């Protein structure tokens, strides 16, 4: 098979993957060990590829803790909360510049009034707290993975009562376009070298 045919086949495969885009979710009662992309702590800076609109960060001892929001079971410090009572907002959005292939976070209390909207260019999925376990005394670690070549562009958090608490955010971003171009250039160079060896 010629190098040109291999490139055409690869491009067709990528198009087919994108056509079957889907979202896969899984949850666990165990918070994984390892580095966190953003934990809502004072000393942390929000990574440049993440933007957050709405919600509020709380810490133990803040006004409203225990009445409008609660520290998520398994949280390690501060947490982010969305809800109808001020100073929270009832809807908040977390966006990922360039898209993310996988996102996971600690969902503090998956209540029936918590709604998570997962948005990608080829999918839109809604998760209710009750679809996980509906037990507000148990935190759930939710993992969301874009499948089939699509990316997660944004998460929208809504809470009609009390709060939707989030902590320990982990995000896997897609390589920069420059990295992809470098990889393709490397593959092209390898094909060129292989072709020259064959000709010699």
Task: Summarize the helices and strands and which ones pair or pack.
Elements: H1 3-19, E1 22-28, E2 50-53, E3 56-58, E4 79-82, E5 91-107, E6 114-120, E7 124-128, E8 140-147, E9 152-159, E10 164-173, H2 177-199
Antiparallel strand pairs: 1-8, 2-5, 3-4, 4-10, 5-8, 5-9, 5-10, 6-7, 6-9
Determine the CATH topology.
Jelly Rolls
Distance between the termini: 18 Å
The share of residues in extended strands comes to 35-45%
Q: Identify low-pLDDT runs.
A: 3-20, 178-182
Write out key terms for the chains shown:
Jelly Rolls, ten-stranded antiparallel beta sheet, 200 residues
Notes on the structure:
The chain is α+β, with helices and mostly antiparallel strands. The chain has one domain: Sandwich (Jelly Rolls). Helices cover 20% and strands 36% of the residues. It has two helices and ten strands. Strands 1, 2, 3, 4, 5, 6, 7, 8, 9 and 10 form a ten-stranded antiparallel β-sheet that branches. A hairpin with a 3-residue loop joins strand 6 and strand 7. The longest helix is centred in the last third of the chain and has 23 residues. The chain is elongated, with a radius of gyration of 21 Å. The N terminus is likely disordered.
